[in-house]
């Protein structure tokens, strides 16, 4: 089980990639936001809310098994000049993977926490903080823990990796890197119930993002550690996400996507490099429009603002003994559909 738990926490680095239908003509501007030799600045998310950008990431000395992670939150009025507005830490807990979520024009930040005994996971905890002109205290996020698991850790049975609100309800595809990959839902965003539907654990599905289109239909992009990424759509009759396409990126870390409209999806994640792609839901075809960074990289956030796609990510290609945070901007007019 120890090996599987390590797979749950560690990113597998890759070294080469050939994408289909790549567009090398996309004009993009990338800005480095942080730089600190020896520090791992990673696991980003990005949002525009209350007439400002918010950027969040984890800081530690290592990707994993180092100092317990601290979550740093920055804001910017223009996306160019950034300032630190908040730090989050919990004694004895490694915080990581902060994710923004919006419900009914209310902004929240979800943060995961892992407690270790040596290099073994002993407990999973999750937190939520609300924004109202400032950022409030961390509240505990709990799961109903009704699924039988062979995992030995306590706390939450799984990791609700990204929480998405749709029609007044919060959803997350949670996993534990061993024997749980399940849909969780919540009415208040703090207590999540697991679905009765048993999802396939083939090829170890882990991180997943859920998003809704303009009609309220739910879609998901799922990383599988040992196989291609899955594009899925929520099937109301079956009460589950069912696969309609695959992206040929094994271990596609930090998968994320945003609806450009009901036909096109902009997606991102890391496969050797940070990839930004365009997916056609009508033809099930895709192309890569931009690549960035390398090695230890990825976990992007996405925002469309003023006809520009903003993508936050991290990469280790310019940082000695660590990684830095970047923001890439691509004008939507430059994307060939």
Could you characterize what this model shows?
The protein is mainly beta and 337 residues long. It has a domain at 2-52 and 60-67 and 161-334: Neuraminidase (6 Propeller), CATH 2.120.10. Helix content is 2%, strand content 55%. The chain has one helix spanning 2-9; strands spanning 29-32, 40-49, 52-60, 70-76, 83-88, 94-103, 106-117, 120-130, 139-143, 154-155, 159-160, 164-166, 169-175, 181-186, 191-194, 205-212, 218-224, 227-235, 240-247, 253-259, 264-271, 273-280, 285-292, 297-305, 308-315, 324-331. The strands form five sheets. Strands 6, 7, 8, 9, 10, 11, 12, 13, 14 and 15 form a ten-stranded mixed β-sheet that branches. Strands 1-26-25-24 form a four-stranded antiparallel β-sheet, with no helix packed on it. A hairpin with a 4-residue loop joins strand 14 (181-186) and strand 15 (191-194). The longest helix is centred in the N-terminal third of the chain and has 8 residues, at 2-9. The radius of gyration is 18 Å and the shape is globular. Residues 1-8 and 10-23 have low confidence and may be disordered.
